[in-house]
Amino acid sequence: MMKLPSMGSSLFLVLSLVSAFVSGFGKRLPILSFDEGYSQLFGDDNLVLHRDGKAVHLSLNERTGSGFVSQDLYLHGYFSASIKLPADYTAGVVVAFYMSNGDIFEKNHDEIDFEFLGNIRGKDWRIQTNIYGNGSTGVGREERYNLWFDPADDFHQYSILWTYSQIIFYIDNIPIREFKRTAAMGGDFPSKPMSLYATIWDGSDWATNGGKYRVNYKYAPYVAEFSDLTLHGCTVDPIEFSSKKCDTSSQSLELSATITPSQRSKMDSFRRKHMTYAYCYDQNRYKVPPMECVINPKEAERLKKFDPVTFGGGRRHHGKRHRRIRASQSETDTI
């Protein structure tokens, strides 16, 4: 049972959260130094702090990957980082920015993922989002996308907004995926306190073409750079799972989690141009779409044309390969 907050602190938290989100999703939220909000998870000296702790470099070499974790547990909130990914040959490399409680709930954990999947030289990084609730790992809720920029050239902002009723993923403040809670999902929607994680690791067995291309340590170390780290939400006692902020902050987050018509237009444009996989349309995995899926006929038709075997039950024609042409600057301006 969550403890109710005092009126003074409640009003301040509501006003600060609503003001921050209405003004541009986190632009006015405080940026924490590493020591203020995070602890090293693994990797020894493969984690290096820069700019007085305001930036973190995670590296992967033959010995180990590396990662960090938030010092607090959160029940709902806004979590963000500016990330620059490794360049050149990155096949098999996985960089992850995600929420999880797998260390506490081993058999029924929740998870909200941004995963960046490396590629061979000359091919672009791919980004994957995924959601698990109550240990529902048997139902993969992945979506995968290409990007309209090279994420190894510069920093870009990746954000997760998690409320009681929905989860929204953002890239550079553009919503790319909206996942709504439904009654039919029950506990499959993430609903338990989670920590924020950032990691880099060797995913050779699956990350690039199903494991066809593996990490080549000739190009190591692979370094992922993180800055502008934002943790803003309801902190929870790790023993009692109670908080004086949760009721109030959850209400204010719900008020802020509305996608405006302009944002929705940009999200639709992104998904139309850059989405390459969505579990709801995968007819090989799910003869009947999972219960939370809302089928968009235009998305279904586009994905069917992109990959008729996965999304339409057709036959793959040999000699033809799908490849993405990078969006022109005029296209990116309209995303």
Automatic annotation (TrEMBL):
Enzyme class per UniProt: transferase
Active-site positions on this chain: 111 (nucleophile), 115 (proton donor)
PTM comment text: Contains at least one intrachain disulfide bond essential for its enzymatic activity.
EC number(s) given by UniProt: 2.4.1.207
UniProt keyword annotations, A-Z: Apoplast, Cell wall, Cell wall biogenesis/degradation, Disulfide bond, Glycosidase, Hydrolase, Secreted, Signal, Transferase
Region (Disordered): 312-335
Subcellular location: Secreted, Cell wall; Secreted, Extracellular space, Apoplast
Entry keyword annotation includes Ion transport: no
Pfam family, one: XET_C
Compositionally biased tracts (Basic residues): 314-326
Domain called GH16: residue spans: 1-226
UniProt signal peptide: 1-20
Gene Ontology biological process terms from the UniProt entry: cell wall biogenesis; cell wall organization; xyloglucan metabolic process
Molecular function as annotated in GO: hydrolase activity, hydrolyzing O-glycosyl compounds; xyloglucan:xyloglucosyl transferase activity
InterPro entries in alphabetical order: Beta-glucanase-like, Beta-glucanase/XTH, ConA-like_dom_sf, XET_C, XTH
GO (cellular component) term, any one: apoplast
Function noted in UniProt: Catalyzes xyloglucan endohydrolysis (XEH) and/or endotransglycosylation (XET). Cleaves and religates xyloglucan polymers, an essential constituent of the primary cell wall, and thereby participates in cell wall construction of growing tissues.
Protein family according to the UniProt entry: Belongs to the glycosyl hydrolase 16 family.
Descriptive protein name: Xyloglucan endotransglucosylase/hydrolase
